[in-house]
Design goal:
single chain, 8-stranded antiparallel sheet, 124 residues, TATA-Binding Protein, YubB ferredoxin-like domain-containing protein
């Protein structure tokens, strides 16, 4: 089980992301500490899940969505990315291998889902 989940969405407004999250989770709190950062607190199956939505996280067009919890409905970043793509209809990227304490991970190896399909690629 991953300790957290993080995905990146292309050209997707924060309001749209929060609406998507509200379909799966109970939205408990929302704040905007900076113009590019929105923090939400969600509830899922009795667990509180802090989420940070950071615009322009990778270049000007990608927004990071970071779930700081192991209690999401997804076991991996890729499963979260698939769900996000089907709801948000925008390109979604995530780490290909997920999180490991040790191992031979390639930090540039990513998974991409868009209208052309999905698969691994190098994002650097």
């Amino acid at each position: 089980m991953q300790p957290d989940i993080e995905i990146y969405v292309l050209s997707c407004p924060t309001d749209t992301i929060v609406s998507w999250l509200s379909q799966t989770f109970t939205l408990l709190e929302q704040s905007q500490p900076t113009p590019l950062c929105t923090k939400v607190t969600l509830e899922f199956n009795g667990h509180t899940i802090p989420v940070t939505i950071l615009e322009q996280a990778s270049g000007k067009r990608f927004t990071s969505i970071w779930f700081d919890s192991s209690h999401t409905p997804w076991e991996t970043d890729i499963l979260c990315a698939k769900d996000a793509y089907s709801s948000l209809n925008c390109e979604v990227r995530c780490n290909y291998q997920g999180w490991e304490e040790e191992g031979d991970q390639d930090p540039d190896q990513w998974w991409k889902i868009n209208s052309h399909g999905e698969g691994p690629f190098v994002w650097n």
